[in-house]
Amino acid sequence: MILIKQLNCCFIKIYYLALTYHNKITKLNSMNRFQLPDLSYSYGALEPYFDQETMHIHHQRHHQTYVDNLNKALVDTRIESIELDDILGQVSQYGSAVRNNAGGHYNHSLFWEILSPTPKTIPTGRLANEIDAVFGSLDELKMRIKNAGLGQFGSGWSWLYVKYNGTLDVVATSNQDNPLMNTQLASRGVPVLGVDVWEHAYYLKYQNKRADYLDAFWSVLDWSVVEKKYDRIIDKLI
Ligand SMILES: [Fe+2]
Fold first, then answer.
1. What is the reported pTM?
2. Across the strands, what pairs with 161?
3. d(CA 25, ligand 1 centre) in Å
4. How is residue 37 annotated by DSSP?
5. 21, 69, 100, 223: which could join 120 in a potential S-S bond, CB 3.0 to 4.6 Å?
6. Half-sphere exposure of 87 toward its Cβ, with a 13 Å CA cutoff?
7. What are the start-end ranges of the E strands in the chain?
8. Residues 51-99: tens digit of each pLDDT
9. H or E element in which residue 141 lies
């Protein structure tokens, strides 16, 4: 009888230790669920349009903070197993910590991806045809994106995105919102191009001249990346 009691006690201890270890590992993995993506170019590579110091701070500090706070928010809210796109698609279910930081991570990841020191400066193919059909010309589209960015009061983003009916549109969003979010009732879709108009994206070089920063953006925007994103979305819709 004593032996059985000792064995039971031993099993309970082993079970408890295993459970504690499992919970620690799960929490550790969740805390590191999302990571800061590497840039495919150096911080100074986009000079003179985007300066090295801004790029360094923007990526290493601002974006890293969104990643860290997103991982923490996911653990706190116990939704760590959901994909980023799915979080954004049902973001109205969550609190502001998830909304702001999931948006911040998604938006900045896209932003770094579409920039290049050796960009394709004019779109071609299906994207170019659709831009002409919807906006009349590339210059008109650039003006729409610039005006959306200038018209965004305070912090936010200006987007070119594909609506769920397959057409292109331009919209500005506040804070770290984007068209993937289900809170964007009148402008929902998949972004293919986004310009960060938070002051942290341009103030060191351009101070209050947001228009000059938005003009400089076109010199480092790689249309080949935007085309690939557009083609992938359209192929899925067909
Ligand atoms: Fe930013």
1. 0.87
2. 169, 191
3. 31
4. P
5. 223
6. 27
7. 156-163, 168-174, 189-196
8. 999 999 999 999 999 999 999 999 888 776 789 999 999 999 999 999 9
9. helix 138-151
Residue written as token pair 């954004």? 88
In order of 114, 122, 238, the CA distances from 219 in angstroms are 12, 10, 32
Give distance in angstroms: CA of 90 to centre of ligand 1: 23
Is the Cβ–Cβ distance between 27 and 75 less than 8 Å?
yes
Q: What's the fold here for domain 125-237?
A: minor pseudopilin epsh fold (3.55.40)
Q: What is the pLDDT of residue 24?
A: 47
The Cα-based distances of 133 to 43, 127, 129, 168, 198 in angstroms read 36, 10, 6, 10, 31
Give the domain ranges of the chain. 125-237
What's the gap in Å between 190 CA and the centre of ligand 1?
Answer: 19
Q: For residue 183, which of 72, 95, 71 has the smallest C-alpha distance?
A: 95
